[in-house]
Amino acid sequence: MYNQENCRFAKTHEWAFAEGDVAVVGISNHAQEEISDIVFVDLPKVGQKTEVGKNCCVVESVKSASEIYAPVSGEIVEVNEALNADPALVNREPHGNGWLFKIKMANPAELDNLLDFNAYQATIAK
Amino acid sequence: MDEILQHNQLSIEKSHCGRRGVQFEQTQQHASAYLPQSCLRKTAPNLPELSEFDTVRHFTRLSQLNYSLDGQFYPLGSCTMKYNPKAYDVLSVLPQFAQAHPFAPQSALQGTLRALYELQEGLKAITGLAAFTLQPAAGAHGELTGILTVRAYHESRKDFERCEVIVPDTAHGTNPATANMAGYTVVNIKSGPDGCVDLEALQATLSNKTAAVMLTVPNTVGLFEKNIRQIAELVHKAGALLYMDGANFNALIGLAKPADFGVDVMHLNLHKTFAAPHGGGGPGSGPVGAAAHVAKFLPKPFVVKENGVYKLEADRAESIGKMKAFYGNAAVCLRGLCYLKQFDATTLKTIAEKAILNANYVRAKLKGKFNAFFDTNCMHECVLSIDPHAMNGVHTSDVAKRLLDYGFYAPTIYFPLIVPEAMMIEPTETESKEMLDAFVTALEKIYDEIQTNPELVKAAPHTQCVERIDEVSAARQPNLRW
Amino acid sequence: MFTPHTSQDEQQMLQTLGISSLEELLTQIPAALRTKDFNLPSALTEQQLTAYLHELATQNKPLKNFIGAGCYEHFIPAAVPALSGRGEFLTAYTPYQAEASQGTLQTIYEFQSCICALMEMDVATASHYDGATALAEAVLACGRITGRKEILVSALLHPHYKEVLKTYTKHSGLTISEVKATENGTLDVNALQTQISAATACVVLANPNFLGYVEQAEKIEEITHGAGALLTALVNPISLGVLQTPGSYQADFAVAEGQVLGNPMSFGGPGLGILTSKKAYMRQLPGRMVGIAKDHQGRRAFVLTLQAREQHIRREKAASNICSNEAICALNAVIYLTLLGPQGLKEVAELNVERAHQLAEKISQVKGFSVLKKDPFFNEFVVQCPVAAAEVIEKMAERGIAAGYDLGTTCASMKNCLLVCATEMRTEKDLQAYADALGGI
Question: CA-to-CA distance for B113 and C169, rounded, in angstroms?
Answer without folding.
Answer: 29
